[in-house]
Amino acid sequence: MRMAAVFGYTFFMDHKTDAELALLLISAQAGDQKAYEEFLHKASEILRSFLKKKIRDPEKAEDVLQETLMAIHKSRHTFLRGRQLGPWLYTICSHRMLDYFRKQRRLDRLEVPLMDDDIVAQESPAEKIASTHPLHHQIVSALDRLPAKQKEVIRLLKIEDLSVKEVAAHVNMSESAVKVTAFRGYQAIRKFFGGKNEN
Amino acid sequence: MKTEMLIKELTANVAPVRPVLHPIVQFALWVVASSFLVAVGVLLIGPRRDLHLAAQESAFAMQVIPMLFLTCFSAAAAFFLGIPDRKKTWTAWGPLLALISWLIIFGLLLTSHGNLHTGAGIKCLRNILVLSTGPAMILLYILKRSVAFESRTMGLFAILSATTLACAGTRFICPNDDPLHFFLWHFASVAALAALGAYFGPIFFKKIKN
After folding, report:
1. What integer is the mean pLDDT of A192-197?
2. Which residues of B touch A73 (CB under 8 A)?
3. Which residues in chain A are closer than 8 Å to B82, comparing Cβ atoms?
4. For residue A178, how far is the Cα from the chain centroid?
5. Calpha distance A22→A43 (Å, rounded)
6. Cβ <8 Å between A41 and B7
7. pTM for the whole structure
8. What's the complex ipTM?
9. HSE on the CB side for B52, CA within 13 Å?
10. Could you tell me if residue A161 is left (phi over 0), alpha (psi between -120 and 50 degrees) or otherwise beta?
């Protein structure tokens, strides 16, 4: 077994699997579609089990896995023949994972607890927002200022508590477009609260 | 989108790709091309008249050698950082140690040199900019096929290596051997340009990737 340490995380890929996947990737570099498909399937199995240990939410882990596969696709020309595949694969995966954690930290700073279970059971979504917490009125005010698309996406994500995938299907946008729209909305809300704090 | 669907999409029209050159090969190509360009630049701008005398002074070699070390370590680090998995400890320590040795030598020269003056230095800044342009463009051109996970560090090392090489070239042009002049006009110019490289690194690599 060979160990590769990437950003302090350790993972295991035996020498045989490493060599097998490396050969598949080299064939893929030459344009072999079957080899590439097999490579991506096998790599995603290994990366999925790694990511599920690091990211609690299985859906988010799957999102990060997909981002990693896209990054692998864009960087497949950087794998050098004769090198171990494991460190190459996990460097790409770890960077995507770090991007995810950074984004989560940014979003967590913007989020406030909007409802508790009792209110969820009795009130409609609009009433949940107009709840006792004084910040809720400011949030409603901030949401009303957003463009329609951003408001709708944030409402579906945070109030209706839908997943990114479900929101994408609902508003007929791609998942990455949903994430970008939500992020811009959060930035606008943050600016709104920043202006209020200055006053 | 399910992962299986994504895999099908990615493999649908997979085109062959040309693997990148080994970072050592990239580095060797860059060193040869850039040294040639800086040498030509020095000849066109005009070498200092007392070059044959200055080159015999130990202070001359003491300034040029650390600069060449810093050039090589920074360039190599930039190329190795562009390959996933290729990050080695020396990519951080190598340039840092070369920089520290350069600063130590500066300190020694400053303390041992009496009567320090800065002298005019706009021409030196201009020469550094002119001499570093070619090497910087070649390095960034080679790096555009690399992976830019550490775009800020790569930007820093790319511009640092090009400007330090140019700075070494200016020792063959600038007749002012005063260490204070060199520190303020040559070293500070390199530091400022390298900082710009770090700042613009993410912007540059994001643009070329898109």
Report:
1. 61
2. 10
3. 78
4. 11
5. 10
6. yes
7. 0.74
8. 0.83
9. 1
10. left
